[in-house]
Amino acid sequence: MKATILIVEDEGLIALHISEILANAGYMVADLLPSGEDALEYLSKTPPPDLILMDIGLAGRMNGIETARRIRENSDIHVLFLTAYSDQIRIREAGEVSTFERIRKPFTEKDLIAAVETALIQTKRRPE
Amino acid sequence: MKKKNRSSGKEPADVPGASSGIRSRAEKLLQEKGVYETSMGEPDLRALVHELKVHQIELEMQNEELFRSKGELEESRQKFRDLYDFAPVGYASLDADGTIWDMNLAGASLLGEARINLVRKRFQLVLPPESIPAFNEFSARVLSSDLRQTLEIRIHNLGEFPRYIQIEGRAMGEESMKHRRFRAAFFDITDRINAEQALREKEEKLTRSVIEKEALLAEIHHRVKNNLTALISLLSLEGTYEDTPEGKRLKKDLQNRARSMALIHDTLYKTRMYASVDMDVYLKTLAGQIACSFEMVRPVRTIVNGGGIDLDLARATTCGMIVNELITNSFKYAFPDSFECETGRQDSSTVGVFLKKDEKEYTLTVSDNGVGLPAGFEPKAARSLGLKLVNFLAKHQLRAIIDVTTNPGTLFSIRFPLDPNFHLERP
Hints:
heterodimer, A: alpha/beta, Rossmann fold, 5-stranded parallel beta sheet, 5 helices, about 50% helix, B: alpha+beta, Beta-Lactamase, 4 domains, 5-stranded antiparallel beta sheet, 5-stranded mixed beta sheet, 12 strands, disordered N terminus
C-alpha cells in the first residue's frame, strides 16, 4: 500500500502542484493545509500520515520548524522540510528537528519524488 | 537689670540705640519749639520730672522691642539666605546688560564658577559666542514684560561636553528700564537635550532606513512585475509555433494568470503601498485587462467596485487569481454568439466584480448575466483547472465559504474572514 502524505504549505499553487505530483506518483495525499495550527488540529483528529511535507515559512503564527517540533513531541511522524530559505540559522534549526535532506524550492518533480521515497525508506529502517 | 538701668539716671545717650547726635538734634528741636519753661514752681517741676522719667522708661521699652524685632528679622533673613544659597536650583538677580548682582551657590555651581568670580560680572561671560544674542534678546524680553519668560541656551562646555540650561526670568520692581533688574532661575537640562538629540538622530536614521527599504521594495515589485511580463512575452513567442485553437486558449489562460500576478506588483509599485493592495485600483485594472484579451461578438460591460478596501498582499493575490478565473469563464462561456442578452435579460451583457466588507467578513462577488451554468453542473466538483483553482484557493488561502447561484446568469459569492487565521463557520 502506498504511503499517506500530509502537505503543509501556505502557498496554494505550490501545495496544489506538490499534491498533483504525489498523486500521479501513486501516493495518498491526506490533505493540503496552509498553517502549523491547521496541521496540529488535523493530527489531533485524524490517523497519522506516514510523512509530512512541511514548508518552513507558513501562514499563521507558527513556522514549520516550530510545528514539526510540536508534532515530534507527541508522535513519531516524520517531517520532510520544504524550504526557500538560505538562512543558515533556519537550516540548522530544521536539522535539529528532522535529519532528512531538505527539499529546496524551486524543485523539479524528480527531486520531490526522490526526496519523498528516500525519506519513507529511512523512516521504515529507523527504529523509534 | 532693666529696673536698675531705669533708676540709675543714665543719660539718654547711653541707652542702646541712642547717640549724642540724636541728643543734640533733640535739644535743637526743643529750642526751636520754644517750649523751654524756666519759671515753673516746684510742684510743676516735680510733675514734669515724673512725666519725663515715665517717658524715658517707655522709650527704653520701645527700644528693647525694636531690638528684639531686629533680631528676629535678622534670624529670618539668615534663614532665607541659607535657603537661597543651598537651594538645589540656581537663582540670580541680573540687570539689563546681564550684570549679575547676586547669585546662589547652586547657580554658581551650575555655571561651573566660584560665586565670587561671577557676582558683578556679566552673565555673558559664561556663554559661548553663539548663545549671546539669544540671551540679550531674552533679557530685553524679560524686562519689557511682567510675565515669566523662558530661554533654553547652551553655556560653556564642562570639559569636552556641551552643557545646556533653561533660564526662567521675571522682572523685579518698577525702576526705569535702564536700572530694572530681573530674577532668574537656572535648571540644568543637559541630560534632556542630549536625550532629545539622541532621539532625533535615531528618528533620522530610522526615516532614512524606511526610505531605503521602500525604495528596495519598489524595486523588487518592479522587477517581479517585469519578470512576469517577460514570461507573458515568452508565452507569446512560444505561441507562434502552436497555432491550434487549444494551444491559443492555453496560451491566453496562462498569460492572463501571469498578468493577474504581475498586476499585483504593478499596483503596489504605482500606489507606493507595500503592505496592502488598493483593491479598487487592482480589480478595475485586472478586469479591464481580461476584458481586452477577449474578442466578443457583442460588447460586454464590466462593472467593478473594490469597496475602498486595502487587502494584504497574500489575500489580494489570491482574490486576483480567483477573479481572473471566474471572469475568464464568464467571457468564455456566459455569452455565446447564440445568446441575445438584451432580449433575454432586458439588459446588456454585463460582468460584475464586487468586494465588500462588514464587521465580520469580506465578500467577493463575481457575477454575469449570461446563460448560466449547464443543468446538473456542480462547480465545486469541476475538474477544469480554472474552477479547481477557484475552489482550492478560496478554501486553502482565504479560508472562504463559496456559494454559487445560477439562472439567471451565474454568481459566485466568496466570503472570507477579516482575520486571516480565523475560520468562518457555515451557518
